[in-house]
Amino acid sequence: MSLASLRSSTVGDWQACGDCFYSRELLHDMVWEDVDLDTKRVCMAPFGGPIATMRDEQAMVMVTSSQSVQPVVRIFTAA
């Protein structure tokens, strides 16, 4: 069975990674305001634990006078 045929079948949500396949299941809707993960470094705890974010120093970000230039770690949880 080819990878192209898998994508069009009922298991099309699975992604190949080497010899293994992985799928993603939505467990919780995270409703966060003003969080842009494109400019953040993200670290997640296992088993649905908290998520920590901080600004990615490698990413280009416009800094305004109301923003701190100090690193800020924000913690999110689904609880």
Radius of gyration: 18 Å
Q: Find the structural class using helix and strand composition.
A: mainly beta
Shape: extended
Care to count the β-strands?
5
- Fraction of residues in β-strands: 15-25%
Side-by-side strand order of the widest sheet: 3-4-5
Determine the mean pLDDT: 75
- Quaternary structure type: single chain
Main sheet attributes: strand count, strand direction, barrel closure:
3 strands, antiparallel
Number of domains: 1
Helix content: under 10%
Distance between the termini: 41 Å
Total of DSSP H or I helical runs spanning 4+ residues: 1
Helix-strand pattern = HEEEEE
Low-confidence stretches: none
InterPro entries: VPS16 (IPR016534), Vps16_N (IPR006926)
GO molecular function, one term: actin binding
Domain Vps16 N-terminal: 12-78
Pfam families: Vps16_N (PF04841)
Give an account of the 3D structure.
- By secondary structure, this protein is mainly beta.
- It has one domain.
- 6% of the residues lie in helices and 24% in strands.
- The protein is built from one helix and five strands; from the N terminus they run αβββββ.
- The chain has one helix at residues 3-7; strands at 15-17, 20-22, 40-44, 51-55, 74-76.
- The strands form two sheets. The protein has a three-stranded antiparallel sheet with strand order 3-4-5, with no helix packed on it. The protein has a two-stranded antiparallel sheet with strand order 1-2.
- β3 (40-44) and β4 form a beta hairpin.
- It is extended.
- It starts with a helix and ends with a strand.
